[in-house]
Amino acid sequence: MKNITINTQLSVYDSLDELPQDIQDLMQQAIAIRKKAYAPYSKFRVGAALLLDNGKVVLGSNQENAAYPSGLCAERVAIFQAGAIYPEAKIVKMAITAASDTNQTQSPIPPCGSCRQSIAEYEFKQDQGIEIYFMGEVGAIYKSDSLKNLLPFTFDKNFL
Ligand code: THU
Predict the structure, then answer these.
(1) How many whole angstroms from 4 Cα to the centroid of ligand 1?
(2) pLDDT score recorded for residue 10
(3) pLDDT tens-digit profile of 46-87?
(4) Nearest Cα to 130, choosing from 96, 92, 157?
(5) Residue having the nearest C-alpha atom to atom 9 of ligand 1
(6) How far is CA 105 from the centre of its chain?
(7) Residue 21 is part of a domain; what is its CATH number?
(8) How far is the CA of 139 from the centre of ligand 1 (A)?
(9) What is the distance between the alpha carbons of residues 141 and 46, in angstroms, rounded to a whole number?
(10) pTM assigned to the model
């Protein structure tokens, strides 16, 4: 028997001001679209903003449904939209923010497992990592250079 150790690394920024200007702008767009989320059931609003290598920004917010599992997270709304509209473009950076209508979200909110799997697919598709920044409503921002830091042992096409 032997053990396998996987190292993962994130950077922590204490406030938005510490981020490069382009990421501040991207996060502001994520905050703006978060406020338009359709989240009548959870009251938990999530916004995602993607910067593509063609310079375009694609946005998404969570879209809920009375049949709960039929809803979709903000991250997947955004990446599926990017894949649909700009199938040849690479996703370079992603900003995510989440806020509850009922209490202030102060810690960084990472993408859920299903979103991580979906984001991973696009990293494999484009053969290039995506810089991912995520935060709550206020407080610190976490940055990952690639989805790989958030989902070690990713299931991908190579296993098929
Ligand atoms: N949600 C997202 O939009 N992204 C995530 O990564 C986690 C959860 C949404 C789904 C649902 O509308 C609400 O947040 C509560 O789970």
Answers:
(1) 32
(2) 97
(3) 999 999 999 999 999 999 999 999 999 999 999 999 999 999
(4) 92
(5) 73
(6) 16
(7) 3.40.140.10
(8) 19
(9) 15
(10) 0.96
∠ CA 24-26-31, rounded to 5°: 90
DSSP string of 128-148, one letter each residue: S--EEEEE-SSS-EEEESSGG
Question: Using only C-alpha atoms, what is the Rg of the chain?
Answer: 16
Pocket around ligand 1 at a 6 A CB cut-off: 39, 42, 44, 46, 62, 64, 71, 73-75, 111-112, 115
Q: Note whether residue 140 is domain-resident.
A: yes
Tokens of 19: 């981020």
Query: How many domains in the chain?
Result: 1
Distance 67 CA to ligand 1 centre (A): 14
Residues annotated as catalytic are: 75
Structure tokens at 134: 């995520």
